[in-house]
Amino acid sequence: MELKEFFLAQLDREAASSRKAIERTPEGRNDWKPHEKSMALGLLAALVATMPGWVAMMIETDELNLDDPRNEDLKTKPVATRAELLKLLDEGVAKTRKSLEGTTEAHLLKPWRFKMGGKTISEAPRHVIITDSVFSHLAHHRGQLTVYLRLNDASVPAIYGPSADEQF
What we know:
The chain is mainly alpha-helical and 168 residues long. 52% of the residues lie in helices and 10% in strands. The protein starts with a helix and ends in a 17-residue tail after the last helix.
């Protein structure tokens, strides 16, 4: 199996899981945090919604430099409604699907860099960055989001198995 086929299948699974969590995200609670050091609910939900779209950027560029003012629009921002979150998810998934379908195995083996504060934070082959910085990272933040759901009395969806709210 080629890497892009593997990533396309993973994209479908992860997008479906993210959709379940986003569909239960309470509206009007964007500023809510479980702790002062925690990320706000609105930002976390937007992050979960937009992360699948990061793959397209990683395929189409050689690096992301957050010091470059041209990249300001890439910073995640909260939105007001679940409908907007789902739109962000769908748009990112569509862009990533198109990029993955158009890429080559050789391109996925080429390096990609993340820079910030005048330093290279990470550099690795694209397929490693996509695995670690998107799909594994997405599972982490989606898990955080399910905890936020529970703490806001929203039902928690079954993601990798049953949840207390969805017994099979």
